[in-house]
Predict the structure.
Amino acid sequence: MSITIELLAGLEQLSKTKKSDHEMLVTHPVDFTEVVDYVATKLLEKHGNVFTGPQSNLAPGIIALINDQDITVLPKDTRIKAGDKVTFLSMVHGG
């Protein structure tokens, strides 16, 4: 079972594969910080500091959605389970 991870608005260019869609295999529900850590350590090239700040928090300028809902409106203890989609968007990107 897996969680779908989308890297959009320039973040896909920081991924090792340069693709926007990725899968995170899970055997149980995980919290948001586990997904952030997975993206920073497994999916991104050496630009993890652009994605995360101190203590594995998202860096300023990164918007995160769980099943198309902004994480800021979801309960802090929201668990992410197989079949869910987590989307990360950069508010700052070239153009």
